[in-house]
Amino acid sequence: MLEKFHDQSTECQVGHGCEQAGRKDELHFLRFRIGRQELLISVEPVVQVSNAGSISAFPGNPRFFQGLFVTRGDEVTAVVNLADLLGLTSLKSIESQCCLVVMCGGERFGLLVDSVFGLVCYASSSLENSHNDLFGSCVPVVSGVVKDSESVLPVIDVKAIFKAVFREEKKYDHTEH
Amino acid sequence: MSDEFKGLRDSEIEAWERCAQQYQFAYAFIRLRYGGQERDWINSFGELALERYTEHRSLFVFFSDLEISFVTKILDQNVRTLNKDRAALEVLIGAWCQNHADKIEHLKLEPKVVNVPVEGLITQDLKSDIEFFSSTVAEDEVNYCELYQHGITNFSLALHTAAAELSNVEASKTILDCICALLNVAAQQGCVSLYHYLHEVQKMANEVRSEDLLFDIRGIERLRDCLTSIKTTVSDLFPNSEIARTGCGLPFFNGTKHNSSGFDDASLLSINSAKIFNSHLPKLCGHLRIEALAVRDFANVFDGMEVDQEFTRRYASTAGRLERYSDALQDLTNELSTVSLSSILERCLSKPFFSRASALLPLCCKFEGDEVRIPRNACSMIHELFECLYQFLNRFPDSLDFVQFCEAPLNITLRQSTSDFTFSIDGSHDFEHWQIFVRIVREQMKDIRSQANFIVKDQSSFGLLLRFPFESVTSQNLLVESAGERLALSVRTLMETGRVDVQRVQKIGSKRFVPFRDGVIPLVSLGQILKFDQNKKTNTLVADIENQNSQLCPQWLEFVIAKNSNNLIAFEVDSVLGQREMVVREVSKIVPKFSGLLGVSVLEDERVSMVLDVTQLITSDELSRGDYARKVS
Known about the structure:
The complex is a heterodimer of chains A (177) and B (633). Chain A has three helices and twelve strands; from the N terminus they run αββββββαββββββα. In chain A, the strands form two sheets. A seven-stranded mixed β-sheet of chain A has the order 1-9-2-3-12-11-10. Chain A has a five-stranded mixed β-sheet with strand order 4-7-8-6-5. Chain A is mainly β and 177 residues long. In chain B, a hairpin with a 2-residue loop joins β13 (556-564) and β14 (567-573). Chain B starts with 8 loop residues before the first helix and ends with a strand.
């Protein structure tokens, strides 16, 4: 699984402004893609990148929730469909997608994305906060954007995803659906 | 303070502080010579060094052999603010370097140089030192502690950070070479240990497969502690008793000298293997994973930099090797996790040691059973109970005869519900004693997420209800496929499975019914109830249908019949895959709750299967509103 991550990270690069910046001013991200949209996620909560493989559907088909799959270490992990959450359209089938396994609030869960490019770092001055209106999503999960010389990359907020998907959906019951 | 360091202290620190600020990486060589009169200076210097280290996380300190104990003391005092692994590495490397002082003699001059060039931070001599160190380790196969191996990786990370921050490519390359050498040391050490563990564990795994070894060493260890205490207590109470005389079977635990206990050499060897497995393997597995991830990260980060491609390839190769070993060990761990307790107990009962200690067995003998197999971790639960017994006896040595208590009719019955496993223990001892016993048991069982409740039946009869978590046991389930998903249905809730010609399915409005014995029962699609994607039919089913009939509609329809109190209902499934014994796990607390979902299980193809209690689906509102269920007369 990690080999794939390694292969896909050939585009790993140092972002603009990073060379001049000191250590404390750097922000490290994973760069990934959903559909035609490229996005960033802070590398800190990411604990594993793996192929999505076979994800077992969860009874009741809860919103934004793709199912369960087994990560390295034999742990059963819940998977969130990030494309649905952001209102984007994925260009890949679920089997060929990647899963970013993240830790948040002491809990481990996965985020389905199309592909992962690798690690990038930017100076903290490149980050602008509050751009939740970027997507048609009903859930505000974008904490800001990073302005590159070529593009503007939204930064996904893992805590917001956790709060939006798991905290609110926790009491979900199929009988209420 | 010795003459050697007089006047150097302030300038030395200032020099390295400047280096640290400028390059965020300082390489300091500090030699301490201390006596009684210099201790204050050493203390303040040690604190300063630690402060620099904590601030920059890159101050590399060499210490002599004599100073290791002193430094260790300082490190212990600062364990909260200091990465202990890395500190241990520095101490060890420092100790080694002191033994090769002639090789690093030149470093004494470096602190005096304020404007150290970037290339000078990592010198060729240091590089050769580390390479020499690496080759020495490889030749001697020195068995360093795991902490040290872990420390090397951590230190490599620090070097890696420094290398990444330097804009000078040549200097970065030199540092990277050093990292490679260090990682080779780590990998070499890891592999030497790993081969040893692999050998032992494979031996144990073979024994597990052949059912020669069926015991959990943690259980043995705990039992030994328990028996040691019991022996002491019983010896005091009954100096001439059988248990006191024979040592309560303890000679068995004390090595091969007491082979007359009934265990042959092979068993002892197996137990030793198990000991290695249980104490080292999981930890090693975790360390390997961490190291593999760290190494993989190195390769990823440096992939885009102007460094030698050979370097990246070496990283990838090391990471791949670590991952493979980690996977292999995980497989063995999984293999061992299916040992059944009933088999263990059977095995134990045949040994003289256990027959001597048979007074303890009433508590666990009823765990044997055809339907329930308890995995290894359940051993600890039983030994918790042993421990409770001991504490109980220890507290009331005068009021209770040990043997009488243990041989008293403690009736244990096993009941399996759909949500957990319950054991009830009935006894007729003194009420107050039982109360205390229950309190002790309850305390003990908190750790294993279980419950113990005291039940008063009448004046002379009391009981203890022990509730173990569902995930701690294996259970029989029927594996079915529905809408492309594999689902496990608890067999206790199912009556039978069947298939029917689709022509015989009767439709009344939107509802469907299948013939069953003398009547009909309602038929609902399991995938539909669970809101699965109905288009995800399996390929096998489609192929089946095409083979059987060229028509578009399937010829046969498979279903399982479930019963809850008086209600019968047929659940349509794509196919019935057969009955399986599964380890059921608790679903993560963050996932949405779904009534009827007992837990999940991981299948052999690493897919997750939901374990369902279909009786809860029958009583769910949706079905009740539709009045699907047929009342059984």
